[in-house]
Specification:
The protein is an alpha/beta fold and 315 residues long. Helices cover 44% and strands 23% of the residues. The chain has three domains: 81 residues, Arc Repressor Mutant, subunit A, CATH 1.10.10; 112 residues, D-Maltodextrin-Binding Protein, domain 2 (3-Layer(aba) Sandwich); 108 residues, 3-Layer(aba) Sandwich (D-Maltodextrin-Binding Protein, domain 2).
Length: 315
């Protein structure tokens, strides 16, 4: 039994007559009757009940009709999908972004997708990096941007840009007045004993700060722990301590004179990776969104919207 025979059988039952089905299908009636006999012989059951008015499906035929419609419908969907691979990308694509990336990339990416790929429905999901990673493994998002490099049987990563992290404090904090060197930078060792406002343990940024501090043989004192970047900036602005965030996250407050920022020497940086499933093929829409994401990132970096970030040479 093949898809052609299933199509013939559906037409016969819907037309209620082999002769009418033959006309609809543009197939010779004897040939159509032969297909039905071959199907009945191969399955060992009668599929059609012949009457003076035409034919009707038997109980077995009705069961075959139900499944035949599903199989033929699914086959036609596959045909359309394959033919559409080289056509305009369409469908839904979900991308997961950490909050610090979403605040810079989210809106420009949606605008670019709307302009370039009107048939793609782009869904942007925002959460902490750990949740985005879980969503990728569970298949709840198709793409993700993460600060961690991930490479296993399920996922693969590609570094796209490197961003700069800065120490920042309140402009009204007298302790900050003479912290920087003549070049305006600060060393990691100077964080020893400073009251820090950091995300909670397990947060990607907190882990990264502690790793760099350990390399410099510095003990970090987290006076306050809170995950939201907006809350961290507010507490630092109130003079409760210092913190470390990407330079683009505090650029507006520094420009407005509400916060003061210092770059590290040597530079403190982290890499943003595009992460995608390695265990399933990407759709045309997914590939289009990934390429669009890379182009949008290049534009943001070129225009200075991502602070002092630099694109990776492989992008």
């Amino acid at each position: 039994m093949d898809v052609r025979q299933l199509r013939y059988f559906i037409a016969i039952v819907e037309c209620g007559s082999i002769s009418r089905a033959a006309q609809r299908l543009n197939v010779a009636q004897p040939s159509l009757s032969l297909h039905v006999r071959n199907m009945e012989e191969s399955m060992g059951v009668k599929l059609l009940f012949r009457t003076a008015q035409g034919v009707q499906a038997t109980e077995a035929g009705a069961l075959l009709l139900h499944h035949a419609r599903e199989i033929v419908g699914r086959f036609e969907e596959v045909e359309q999908a394959i033919r559409g691979v080289d056509a305009e990308p369409a469908g839904e694509v979900a991308i997961g972004l950490p909050s610090s990336i979403a605040e810079v990339l989210g809106v420009p990416l949606v605008r670019a997708a709307r302009a370039e790929f009107p048939k793609i429905k782009l869904r942007v999901a925002e959460a902490m990096s750990g949740y985005v990673l879980d969503w990728l493994r569970q298949g709840r998002v198709d793409l993700g941007l993460l600060y961690a490099f991930v490479e296993d049987r399920e996922l693969r990563s590609s570094g796209v840009l490197t961003e700069t992290l800065v120490l920042f404090g309140s402009v009204d904090d007298p302790a900050a007045a003479d912290m920087a060197s003549a070049s305006g930078t600060i060393g990691m060792k100077q964080l020893a004993g400073m009251p820090m406002i950091l995300p909670s343990p397990g947060h990607g940024l907190r882990d990264l700060v502690e790793q760099h501090a350990a390399k410099a043989d510095v003990a970090i004192t987290a006076q306050w722990e809170i995950d939201a970047y907006s809350a961290i900036k507010s507490l630092v602005g109130d003079g409760l301590g210092f913190s470390i965030l990407p330079d683009h996250s505090v650029a507006a407050e520094v420009a407005a004179g509400r916060l003061r920022a210092w770059r590290f020497d040597p530079p403190f940086q982290r890499t943003v990776h595009i992460v995608e499933p390695a265990n399933r093929p990407a759709t045309a829409a997914m590939r289009a969104v990934e390429r669009l994401c890379r182009r949008t990132l290049r534009t943001l970096v070129r225009d200075g919207a991502w602070g002092e970030a630099r694109m990776r040479t492989s992008v």
